[in-house]
Input
Amino acid sequence: MTFVTQDAEAKGSLKSETTHLDDLTYEGVAPEELPLFRGLPVPRRTDLMRHAMVHSVSAGTVLFEQGDVPNFQLIVLAGSAQLFGRSAEGREVLIEAVRAPDLVIPAAVLTGAPYLMQARVPEPSRFLLIQAGAFRAAVEVEPLLAHAAIGSLAAQFRRMVRQIKNLKLRSSTERVGCYLLALSKRQGTPDRAVLPFEKTLIASELGITRESFSRALSSLGKSGIRVDGQTIEILDAARVAAACAPDPLIDGTDGEGFAI
Amino acid sequence: MTFVTQDAEAKGSLKSETTHLDDLTYEGVAPEELPLFRGLPVPRRTDLMRHAMVHSVSAGTVLFEQGDVPNFQLIVLAGSAQLFGRSAEGREVLIEAVRAPDLVIPAAVLTGAPYLMQARVPEPSRFLLIQAGAFRAAVEVEPLLAHAAIGSLAAQFRRMVRQIKNLKLRSSTERVGCYLLALSKRQGTPDRAVLPFEKTLIASELGITRESFSRALSSLGKSGIRVDGQTIEILDAARVAAACAPDPLIDGTDGEGFAI
DNA sequence: GGCATGCCTTGATTTGGATCAATGCCGGAT
DNA sequence: ATCCGGCATTGATCCAAATCAAGGCATGCC
Output
């Protein structure tokens, strides 16, 4: 089997490329810069690296399918990965986006259980791949690695809990409004939010259809937002907040307590 | 502050009781029987135990509120805890039930971040409480503890992912049908499922109202189930499955790979 | 017994969001 | 420029599930 497959829809001009650790040109995060490896005893690090490689992949690449048994722990060095859930009938929804630097679903790799989600790459990205067995073994014996894994697992768990609360406790318009407020905060622009990907995708992340997302946006127009393509002007954050009841225990992001 | 508060609704005849480790009468799991501690170097274990106690609590007890900063890592020795999400307006939904033996939201304790959920005890239960700081420190340095924490975190993460897929990809009737099938399988009775708690609570776990849950049950009557109070007879599992499209990547439970 | 109280069911109605369908818009290819 | 395919909006309609409302059926208490 191939551990990374080119998506059928991907344009032919883009290609993925594997690099061994020796002949890297670093962009974004270099593996050695990761706190994960900085603190590692040198022999352990070189041992791990012998079971690792860096892989640059193009937009559209499928990293793995749901149901696959993990062969590698993927670490996002640059770019991001999107995790999708798919139903039997083929409907597909975005569950999470994993941004550099982070581990891609350590929960599956560390338990050796089949992936519950498919991973795709929405933009040219670079990953460190560590063979699953070697990674598990290293985490077993190396407290620093265990610490990093725990931090990543915990943060991802909490994101899932937030999402469940969002889905169960709020209406679709509230979800959209709170999403915009959280986004503008994360981007450091209180009066504006730029959507990170296509509206259809965001809609599926929020558990609604693209049409409902569109309507929610226009209905929030009455509460002080203005839509212009991918950027949303937030004219009256207070009114939006009043309409959507944002809640730090749902919309917040834990500070980067643990860094990978 | 008190780390455990008696629920206002709890009947006065029930009481909670704290026990020091010396004068325990063991029922269910004893702390020393946990694989978690069995393998621990003795000095480490005694050190941990000095920051720990066993607490027996009655039904209705609130273990902590959402927003609280964790003071203890709670470990369910006997019984269970239910985790609730609450909206600003006070609507409350069941997010997960944690059954012995397991850790209660290690994600919050290990990151020191505020709980995203409230924990309540639906039945008389026994918990081991380890002071959060001591627990974190022990996990840092003790690979066996780290391993157990990782196993618990990973399993809990995966349950949340399954739940999100369930909510986003299925209709309410499908969720109910698949819930029953999974339940009967878990209980080892292919032709019957006994609901583990009130229907209202299960409905909130499945993201629907109690009325919709009731209607879903009766509409599944046409697919071969029969409702009798808390027990559901499954007359024709195949027809139910056909109607609800169960999926191991949603309804499955990971085998107990990691034991606490 | 009689009467609350809590939980569940069932029916009537409303409504939020999905679905179906048409059109608009933009960027890329030719 | 023109055509095209993918994405987004908007409108019309439908439908699933929520809400509102009324009883039913236990259980426990006085």
The mean pLDDT of chain B is 89.
